[in-house]
Amino acid sequence: QVQLVESGGGLAQAGGSLRLSCAATGSVAYINAMGWYRQAPAKQRELVAEINLDGDTKYGDSVKGRFSISRDNDKITVYLQMNSLKPEDTAVYYCHADEFVWGPGTQVTVSS
Questions:
Q1: Which of 84, 74, 87, 73 is nearest to 34 (CA)?
Q2: Which of 45, 50, 44 is nearest to 98 (CA)?
Q3: What is the Cα–Cα distance from 58 to 85, expressed in whole angstroms?
Q4: Residues 6+ apart with CB under 8 A from 80
Q5: What is the DSSP string of 14-44?
Q6: Which of 25, 73, 81, 103 could form a disulfide with 68 if both were Cys (CB 3.0 to 4.6 A apart)?
Q7: Burial of 46 by CB count in 10 Å (0-12 exposed, 13-18 middle, 19+ buried)?
Q8: How does residue 64 score in pLDDT terms, banded at 50, 70 and 90?
Q9: Which of 32, 49, 56 is nearest to 94 (CA)?
Q10: pLDDT digits (tens, 9 = 90+) for 12-24
């Protein structure tokens, strides 16, 4: 089984930055894609960013140019660097592995 441990959420001001981390443990040998989705109150969960073993990335339209995802394959950890934060980035951010295993979520709150 795979377990995901997220860290790095919290409070930031608009225009500021935060960095999220997600480490996978357990049966990690078969993980390909890892990434983040987010869900704001009364909204559907949406893609934030994703990266596969080859380093190919995918971003949600609302974060392109502001967020950057990277991956350490030795540590089986993905990082989400969030810059130029906006209040509308406020949400619970969920890490996933192949959209099959999900982390518990970490709250990101951006104040105006």
A1: 73
A2: 50
A3: 19
A4: 8, 19, 20, 21, 22, 36, 48, 49, 67, 68, 69, 93
A5: TT--EEEEEEEEES-TT---EEEEEE-TTS-
A6: 81
A7: middle
A8: very high
A9: 49
A10: 999 999 999 999 9
Sequence-distant (≥ 6) Cβ neighbours of residue 41 within 8 angstroms? none
Residue 83 contacts by C-beta under 8 Å, 6 or more apart in sequence? Answer: 17, 66, 67, 68
Contact 52, 38 (CB under 8 A): no
What amino acid occupies position 103? G
pLDDT band at 73 (very low <50, low <70, confident <90, very high): confident
